[in-house]
Amino acid sequence: MTRRAAGVVVLAWAFLAGCTEDSQPKRDIVMDVAAAMGEGFDTPASRGGELYSRYCSVCHGATGKGDGFNAFNLNPKPRNFSDTAFVRQLDTTLIREAISRGGRAVGLSGLMPPWRYTLTKRDIDDLVIYVAKLSATE
Amino acid sequence: MKTAICISGVLLFISFLLILQDDFNQQWKQVQQRFATIDENRFYSADGDAYAAEPGVKQIVVSGLDRVDRCTTCHLGVQESKYAHAVAPFTTHPGDMLRIHDPKEFGCTACHLGQGYAVSFETAAHEKLEFWNETMLPRELLQATCGTCHLSEEVPAAPQLTRGRLLIRDKGCSGCHDLNNFFEDTPRGPDLEGIGNKTTPAWLYQWLKNPRAYLKDSRMPAFRLSDHEIVSLMEFLMSLNTKDSPPRLIKEQPSEEGNEDDGGTLVSESRCISCHAIHGRGGKLAPELERVGDKVREEWLANFLRNVHYYQPEKVMLEYNFTDRNALDIAAYVLGEFSEEAYELPDSVEALLPRSESQRKDRIEQGRKLMAKYGCDGCHTISGKRLSPRVGPKLTNIGSRLESTLDFGKMTDVVPTLYNWMYMKVKQPAVFDSTSIMPDFHLTDREALEITLALLGNRELEYSEEYLVRESERSLYRKPAGAFGELFERYSCISCHSIDKYGGDISTAPLTIEGSKVQYEWLKDYLLNPSAIRPLLAERMPRFRMTEREAALMADYIKKVYVSDDIPGFFEYELTSQSADAGRRLFMELGCRSCHIVEKTGGYVGPQLDDVGDRLEAGWLFSWLRSPLTYNAETIHPDYGFSEEQAKQLTAYLMTKRGAQ
Prior knowledge:
The complex is a heterodimer of chains A (138) and B (661).
Chain A lengths: L1 H18 L9 H9 L6 H17 L23 H5 L3 H10 L19 H16 L2
Chain B lengths: L1 H23 L2 H12 L21 E3 L4 E3 L27 H4 L2 H4 L2 H4 L33 H4 L9 H12 L24 H4 L2 H9 L1 H4 L12 H12 L15 H4 L2 H10 L28 H9 L1 H4 L12 H14 L9 H4 L6 H17 L44 H10 L17 H12 L25 H9 L2 H4 L1 E2 L2 E2 L10 H4 L2 H9 L19 H14 L15 H13 L22 H4 L2 H9 L1 H4 L12 H12 L6
Helix pairs in contact in B: 7-20, 9-11, 11-18, 13-16, 14-16, 19-20, 21-25, 24-25, 26-30, 28-30
């Protein structure tokens, strides 16, 4: 009788153990890596960042401080995008206009060329997002 | 007995009712009821049979992709922009992908994966579903499935996939794995015949142990070799020493003959830095020269410089017209300048070296077998031949691999998806199995992720041919023939310049339409004695030491053959001085001097323009100004949207800029 009871207990345990999932949480490595990269992985800001380093950084500098290698040659000097107070008071429409139609179109320096025939509308949107971020990360 | 039948009959009837009720309350019906509350009972009603204005299971059949997708049963707003802000299953599809991939023609699961037939969240495999291999792709990996149909290497709308594929090519994965036939299968490393004359056993030992210790950006991956294996490989490689009588054999003892100072002048004049980085600066085409003096033997180097294409049949490096004297000087300079300290074999390895001729023979034989085992000839040929077929598994269908067949070894704490397995494998090849022969490529997280993504799309499915995009643009490049062809090959032009999108990218000037761009006299002089057009770049045109006749022949051919019919060869506009004055005003107003030097002031971003009237053709200047991106998709020169009149004026002004003035 006891032997039969023990058998039932063992069976019940095996049955229950089979039902319960092992509770240890598993790592989803690729998702973790992608999350850690966050901004780095094909978001508007990351695309904007690539465009920025390609087209803008020669004058505006790698981190937006207005200290690109060509800045020495320019008067007035390029804008400092890491200046939070300055960027915050800017309207994004103004940034978009300046990139798209050049400095002259918004009453600023004509040394900033227009990019609307070079970049797509989406490119410019991505750049606006990135430029706004340059001040936020400082 | 009767009672039993009666009871079971009742039970059956009850369960039948339960099933009916369950069917009546199906998830998708509840979802559609919810949709009715947000949009007055109006169901999706775009044209086509897949949708109906009334409730019910909706289904898209795409026979060419072998798909039957019912996703739109719940995702009712995907194609209508007015649902952009609607709640979860009803929202508009983000981005503009559906404009070029209409769901009626492509379905949903060809891109997103998941189980198309299913009409509940769970069974559609939004998350891992048991026994269903195609779990829906997370957003981060979505570009993978682009690669199943887009079989050309570059897919502009899928930058992650493109970068992944370029990495696969760059790392030489196809040396060991059959990937797809669009990945080229050319050897990545140098031919090994003659390596026994080129270097020393001690250098080989440390190189095989850890290539990055010698060259931090080495393309050679790290194999996990034991000292025993390395000694065998070393003996085998040192036995490859037959290439010792080049056509112009230098017999002098270099160290006695070479003049280091003269060698230094030749090195800077020859612009070695355009391809070989020196102290971290310069081109990436060829290996860095930092410690090359600890690697090569001086006599080998002198002979190499004298007979480049004899040692390098693939002719990547150009054949300079060095004399014996030049070659000896450069070899002396390189050995003196680019070395730290001589490599030595550790004592423990010294003890493993063969003591007799028969032992040496055994080692060489073992080395040969190890070459085949590790698939060294995936990258290196020996006298142009390969020893063995590819050693890695075929990966043309890796994206369809059953997840249940993946061996995670001891890594039991990982969600067992195919993408996790692939990522871990490429990042750390021995992670699941310490006996794996796959070498370590030192990939960054991002590189490993992009390679994983590109491989996930490798699936051999029965898609109809009309859905497959094979080559975006096949290059029209043909190797030039005749006397020009010989010179073109001798000076390895294609290693740095591209023609019809084929060739190197070290030069900023593709040669495709160079003849329409530059003037004959300028080109001829430039070939003889290249000046710096962009002084900031380390990568500049080398001095070839070519003859006047060769330069004239090359300039003539380029002017006649590499031309564009769209660029006026004879510029019909009159370049008047009024027009030039207007051009000058425009030039100054627009701030062109931010980037270009004119009248001795300006920036260094673009080429200096003070003698541009001697260099460029008026027709080219006009065409370039009107549309820079047409002539160079990579340029950062902004397109100002100039009118014909403005472009004419700027051209007139620039053509007045002549060096002789």
